[in-house]
Amino acid sequence: MKEVSRIAILGGGESGVGAAILAKNKGYEVFVSDKGEIKEKYKSVLKNIGVEFEEGEHTESKIFNATTVVKSPGIPDTVAMILQLKEKGIEVISEIEFAGRYTKAKFIGITGSNGKTTTTLLTYHMLKKAGLNVGLAGNVGESLAKQVAEYDKDIYVLELSSFQLDGMYDFKVDIAILLNITPDHLDRYEYKFENYVNSKFRILQNQDEQCHFIYCKDDEAIQGYLSQNKVKAIQHPFSIKTITEKGAYIENEKLIININNIFEMTIQSLALQGKHNLYNSMASGMTGRVLELKKEVIRESLTDFQNVEHRLEFVAKIHGIDFINDSKATNINSTWYALESFQNPIIWVVGGVDKGNDYEMLKEMVGEKVKAIVCLGKDNTKIHEAFAGVIDTIVDAGSAYEAVKLAYGLGKSGDTVLLSPACASFDLFENYEDRGQQFKSAVKGL
User: Fold this and answer.
1) Fewer CB within 10 Å, N side or C side of the chain?
2) pTM for this one?
3) How far apart are CA 230 and CA 213, in angstroms?
4) What domains sit in the chain, N to C, each tagged with a CATH number?
């Protein structure tokens, strides 16, 4: 590994400040630059450890003299500065790649268009219950770099987005989990689905014959890639459609895992219900079996897990109407799963910043399940056009409060109001958490 004397970090959020802590810890000269505002809690960390930083601009002279640049996953590779850095031969990497250079820990990496967070938290829950010295990082938990610097673990469970994987080169994931691949973030991938697929499969780079690859056999994009590319790792497919060797499947209402002896439990006893959650439970359970955790630990974990906030989260029942917060559903596929989970008539709250959505795949599901649509976004034209012939009632809201009020007025006892936006949140909200919190506050204010 080559020595680096100066590191520039682009982005002063959780991952950037974590990278700064680790870089400072290792004796590097560190500079943090954020084009936006840096939160007060992160500024105070940088001041305390004596790291120079700036906000509201990128001073090129202080960035281009670095040997390595650690880039926030939110910054596209196509930005002029990133292209110039690479042209000059300056290494541009992700915080995960940087942190991986300073730990001997084992890594469980989880990616996919949907279900990453739930599966990551469930797997972490299981490993903690098993008494392992485990950390949680990536898109959830604390920065991996910060943990490596301050209290390194034996094993980490990482939620990895395609953006993070794009900045990883030498990093090795010991157990890779690929849940599904559906069109998402195509604006970052030249609107080519195959580019996004290739990005997801970067999770396998550097794996060898001792590593494990857990993947969904029912996913067409995954199967298509595997039919044309060789994988070194030991493969463990999971399916709800067919019986699999060295993997997991459903038979007679039971989840069966055939790794290091047979493990089985009834699907009714799983904490996470719904078809999409079966896949998440399978992937976590298989990880437990690969690690040879006790069967009772796996069974308990899959039974008593509490799901993540903003993911199909029950908010309240008001005059017989259920309000569900699924603000974390920022793409079409997540929303499809959400709609599929409910039997009651749905008033669907949808909209935000469209990431190249094709609403065609939702039309049949929406026709079956949805009685009214409330659009929550600045520009709802595409949603109106997509569902005009499918749903009679489509209304617009400019705030979470207005959306909840409209949805409540359209509902009656036995209905479900579902916030599942299928879009990013940045037109009206800070992020999906802010959108979910505002929705919940509005519901509680009814």
Assistant:
1) N
2) 0.76
3) 12
4) 6-93 (3.40.50.720), 98-304 (3.40.1190.10), 313-444 (3.90.190.20)
Residue 118 assigned as binding residue? yes
Q: What is the maximum alpha-carbon separation in the chain?
A: 65
**pLDDT tens digits along 276-316:** 789 999 999 999 999 999 999 999 999 999 877 888 888 89
Judge whether 67 is annotated as a binding position.
no
Sign of CA dihedral 427, 143, 34, 167: negative
What is the spatial distance between Cα 419 and Cα 312, in angstroms, rounded to a whole number? 9
Does 18 appear as a known binding residue?
no
Residue 117 assigned as binding residue? yes
Residues 6 or more apart from 178 whose CB is under 8 A from it? 111, 112, 200, 201, 203, 213, 214, 215, 216, 222
Residue range 309-325: average pLDDT? Answer: 90
pLDDT tens for 17-75 read 999 999 999 999 999 999 999 999 999 999 999 999 999 999 999 999 999 999 998 88
Q: Report the pLDDT value the prediction gives residue 89, as an integer from 0 to 100.
A: 94
Per-residue pLDDT, averaged over 163-177, amounts to: 93
Residue 189: exposed, middle, or buried by beta-carbon count in 10 A (0-12, 13-18, 19+)?
buried
| Annotated binding residue 115 | yes
